[in-house]
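Renewal narrative, Specific Aim 1. Our central claim is that a sequence can be written position by position from structural information alone. The example that follows is taken directly from our test logs and has not been curated for this report. It begins with the structure tokens describing the chain, in the order in which they were read.
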């Protein structure tokens, strides 16, 4: 199974809101970047995803899982290729991992969070997942 990271500005959709959505979860919307869309289309049921607070906080705060694979975005104009994926909260990280910490960790230098900072849906390698998990106290 693959791992991922999704970014959300807390004032638009926060970790607390994701948790409040419960087991039914919610759709991940607003993606209007083709690479992010392609990443969403690769996500499989049950895969785990880091939830990152962007702009405010700048930290990985929790883990969600894919509960529904990519499907057409009902808000997209006819002919537009956008998709949604549904996520449900799994657990908060025992200790959030900041962008500053990720940047200071040499073994994470190639992580998309650093190399493709503006990309809102990113792949995470197994090794990156393990390292972030250790940093977070999992």
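The sequence written for that structure reads:
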């Amino acid at each position: 199974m693959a791992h991922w990271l999704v970014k959300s500005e807390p004032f638009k959709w926060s970790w607390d809101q994701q948790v409040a959505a419960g087991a039914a979860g919610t759709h991940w919307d607003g993606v209007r970047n083709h690479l992010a869309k392609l990443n969403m289309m690769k996500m499989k049921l049950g895969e785990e995803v880091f939830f990152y607070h962007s702009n405010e906080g700048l930290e990985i705060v929790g883990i969600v899982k894919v509960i529904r694979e990519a499907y057409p975005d009902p808000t997209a104009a006819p002919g537009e290729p956008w998709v949604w994926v549904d996520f449900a909260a799994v657990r908060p990280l025992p200790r959030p991992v900041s962008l500053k910490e990720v940047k200071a960790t040499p073994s994470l230098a190639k992580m998309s969070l650093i190399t493709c900072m503006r990309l809102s849906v990113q792949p995470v390698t197994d090794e990156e997942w393990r390292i972030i998990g250790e940093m977070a106290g999992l």
